[in-house]
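Hi U.,

Before I forget, here's the chain from the pilot set. I'm dumping it here mostly so it's searchable later in email.
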Amino acid sequence: MSKRIENIWLLAKMIFSAIMGRLAAAKYKPITLTYAEHDGRRLELDLYLPDDSNATCNSEPLPLIVWFHGGAWIMGSRKDIESLAIRQIERGFALASVSYSLSDKAKWPTQCLEAKAALRHLRHHAAEYGIDPELFITWGMSAGAHMACMLGASNGFKELEGDYGSSVESSSEVQAVVAWYPPTDFLSVGRDFDGLLDYYAEDSPVTKFLGESIDAAPEKAKFASPLNFVTRDAPPFFLAHGSKDPIVPLAQSELMYKKLKDVGSDVKLVIEPEYTHGDYRFNSGKTALAVEDFLDQVRVDQS
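Structure:
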């Protein structure tokens, strides 16, 4: 298959997945909250809560899924939520979908500082919305999975905490992570990676995200790689990746899995043969069942 056709096919799968997510979300009316203001811009998130008629457990505070959209840090919206994540609302989870600065507005680590401000804001106001402040689960795909991993791996790392927003005294700690095809270590991506993205190019999404190329700023690339923040205190991780991913090499999840295993953390990796990047099939079948089993176990362990 030529790269042009592969690009078209990949885009079609991602569009279909996005449509399915928006259709799933249409039944809910989210609460839009401003979690911080920075550089004259309002940073917002959408909070989805179960209807009493749909929630399977509404007598106790709700565990919170904090969703981060994909889009290579150059595009995307908090309205872009995978349908499996939306379906967890019916299972008694609250869901917050967070806007963060794209790379045309800000460079790393701004995105992480913003995301931690969102976590602090949500925890500070947890009682108002019936959220369990002791059970925050970050979840994302692609660039959003990078964010989800970074937030989980950097628990307590002051250099990435920042002081955005008004809830600076609250914790940004994450109790679990779900990450679909995450970039986890920019420096380990081989120059011979025969995919659709050249990580080392001057015009690559990674360069735009970092503000400099990997070659020009290897220390910054290292600082933006979740793998380098993993310690034995890491929360439970669930990783999923397709073996045919032409954007983020499967090795990125495998490296994260190994590092978490090496430090003794709880981690699960599901590899889907033949799945590509942004593949809508992650929302059903084996991966979906495994994600929900993981979420249920986290809920039990934290109770």
